[in-house]
Amino acid sequence: MDRALKKLKVGVIGCGRISVMHLVSIQTLQNVELACVCDNKKERADETANKYGVKAYYDYEEMLDSEKLDAVHLCLPHYLHSKVAIAAFERRVNVLTEKPMDIDLASAEQAVETAKAKGVLYGVIMQCRYNNSAQLVKKAVESGRLGKVISARSVLTWTRPDEYYQESDWKGTWDKEGGGVVIDQAIHSIDLVNWIVDSAVESVSCSMANRGHKIVGVEDSAEGLITYKNGVKYGFYCMNNYGLDEPIEIKLYCEKGKVTFGYDDAYIEYFDGTTEQAHQDVNTQKYEGGKDYWGFQHIRQISQFYKACSGEEPLEISGEEALKTHRLIMDVYEKGGMRK
Questions:
Q1: Minimal CA–CA distance to 36: which of 72, 7, 75, 8?
Q2: Residue 304 · residue 321 · CB < 8 Å
Q3: What pLDDT shows up at residue 258?
Q4: CB burial string 77-96: b at 16+ within 10 A, e below
Q5: What CA dihedral angle connects 147, 224, 130 and 104, to 10 degrees?
Q6: CA angle 121, 15, 105 (to 5 degrees)
Q7: What is the reported pLDDT for 29?
Q8: Which residues, in sequence order, are CB contacts of 161 under 8 Å at separation 6+?
Q9: Strands of 257-261's sheet, edge to edge?
Q10: pLDDT for res 75
Q11: Which residues contact 77 (CB under 8 A, 6 or more apart)?
Q12: Count of CB atoms within 10 A of residue 312's CB?
């Protein structure tokens, strides 16, 4: 059988809220077969397994040892990402994990090195890069149409009340989530700017605080300046004390034009008087229980991951690629000074 046509056997570890984006996406792909799911909460694992007609496991190592899987998706609390990924790599199973890579840098780097040593693929979900808006801006910068990026800024004002954290046994903790608004919400906008600027970071200056939450000690507000070696200065502001999830706003000032974009729309005004814009496609795929702020581009990245697994094309957002943003996020926390 042609390698590109081989049906890949996959499993999902972690059956919480975000898993629906993976489970539904897997079902839409013709060359992928969902074989099993795993969650340490038996009721949740059983419910998901019954819904998708697959086998349930309650221990990920048992699942990895019992099933001959080609790949696993990790939808777990942040602190488990590298640990479980490495367990899969040791069994020569490809991994696609939700962001962030981990809550520290050393664990993420170890996972990347293990995947490389075992000759398997390590993908990290950064689905917002696949938004039509982000794709337009990235191509306009890469092609030279916008000229050099001079400066950038991003603003995120969302809502995560205390009740949000009360519903979880790991959200809002330093030892399991690794932080608050930066690592969980603003990571996507920071990643988009970091990806588009595409330069090594020279310095990070940041302040962060918990200004509005009583039951967690992680940051709910952060602002800072990131300076890149190519001269770009990027200022960011994020907080989750607002009354609703407003659309994020990213702006770029470039040699040949100005850009305003978010997850759904992008507007480019060139200094020669021409313009370009992009808008999100109408979503026809239903993700029961999915959140609007997750977007709808998991399917694009998951499809690309499996093309890489089948040898059709290189993996686009690999562990090595994701480390560029993970290092930056870890530096933001170090300079922010709140982590114990």
A1: 72
A2: no
A3: 98
A4: bbbbbbebbbbbbeeebbbb
A5: 130
A6: 45
A7: 94
A8: none
A9: 201-209, 221-228, 233-239, 149-157, 249-254, 257-261, 265-270, 275-279
A10: 98
A11: 170, 176, 177
A12: 12
